[in-house]
Design brief:
Oligomer: single chain
Strand content: under 5%
Helix content: 40-55%
Shape: globular
Distance between the termini: 45 Å
Strand order of the largest sheet: 1-2
Number of strands: 2
Mean pLDDT: 93
Number of helices: 13
Length: 324
């Protein structure tokens, strides 16, 4: 009897949370109990097929949340009434992993039709990508609703760029409620994944018109990168590891690289140009648990930016289009 009353109290508490539009860990507790298992398996299968997809899913979540908040807008295709964000400068021919989210969504729909939002699936998938790459775990509160539109203009202006100076990076993070520690911790996502040559080639041959490489780039790394990215246009899309030490392992090697002037992107190495951010980098390079803890904290903050809850927005049936 006591157990039954406890269950009733829990369900009343749950319905109160749902009605008030709060994110919580038990949002799909009864409506889709196997959700986390389905997402975990979907991400695991995708990574087994293509290791690079872990970084892609993490980046997809990041690019979603920085534009109109975490609302699944990055997943939308163009319609007659709005242009999607897939063709924005930072996304076109670059952001990937859409089919992984679509496949997981299809599996979730079979188990729990019209119940789980695409943005919640993407948020969970980003966490699983980190965990399956050896990184930290964290609890993901759920209950986000999918947005009804996309914002191409904001995608072109709000997203941090590999060419941004540190002040601009800090400003773009501050615009969505993230601080300097979040900038440094979330930049650590570059411990996994690849970057196209065009994002750093300017550092190799004629940095700021000097005719020489970027002085803040380790000379032996610059030499090997010149081989991988020759100074011709057709090398622009060649891929290189963001973290040469452990490309597919989520660890703190990225920060050790920065301390040794071996950050690939100018925006990565720029973290060493400011005493405050450099101090955080050094801490993470020495204490991997500190990085893991701060990364998890910053990911929770990222996943809560501008969320739509309650009866606002919708639960899309297909992630690439709003319901009609």
């Amino acid at each position: 009897m006591h157990q039954k009353n406890t269950s009733i109290i829990f369900l009343v508490f749950l319905s109160f949370l749902l009605a008030n539009g709060q994110l919580n860990y038990y949002y799909y507790y009864s409506s889709c109990p196997n959700l986390q298992m389905i997402v975990k398996y979907g991400v695991w299968a995708a990574i087994r097929n293509d290791t690079r997809v872990a970084a892609s899913l993490l980046r997809l979540h990041f690019h979603d949340c920085f534009v109109n908040g975490c609302d699944g807008s990055v997943l939308l295709d163009d319609t007659e009434t709005f242009k999607g964000e897939k063709t924005a400068g930072p996304n076109i021919n670059s952001v990937r992993g859409f089919e992984v989210i679509d496949n997981i969504k299809a599996d979730v729909e079979r188990a729990c039709p019209s119940t789980v939002s695409c943005v919640d699936i993407l948020t969970l998938a980003a966490r699983e990508a980190v965990v399956l790459s050896g990184g930290p775990n964290w609890g993901v509160a759920l209950g986000r609703r999918d947005g009804l539109t996309a914002n191409l203009k904001a995608a072109n202006t709000n997203l941090p760029s590999p060419f941004d100076p540190l002040e601009k990076m800090i400003s773009k993070f501050a615009d969505v409620g993230l601080n300097l520690r979040d900038v440094v911790a979330l930049s650590g996502a570059h411990t996994i994944g690849l970057a196209q040559c065009f994002t750093f080639k300017h550092r190799l041959f004629d940095y700021k018109g000097t005719g020489k490489p970027d002085p803040n780039l380790d000379s032996s790394l610059a030499s090997s990168l010149k081989t991988a990215c020759p100074n011709v246009a057709k090398s622009n899309t060649n891929l290189n590891s963001l973290d040469m030490v452990s490309t597919y392992m989520f660890d703190n090697a990225y920060y050790k690289n920065l301390v040794n002037n071996a950050g690939l992107l100018e925006s990565d190495q720029a973290l060493m140009s400011d005493p405050q951010s450099a101090s955080i980098v050094k801490g993470y390079s020495m204490y991997p648990y500190l990085f893991f803890n701060d990364f998890a904290t910053s990911m929770i903050k990222l996943g809560n930016i501008g969320v739509i809850t309650g009866l606002n927005g919708e639960v899309r049936k297909k992630c690439g289009q709003i319901n009609h």
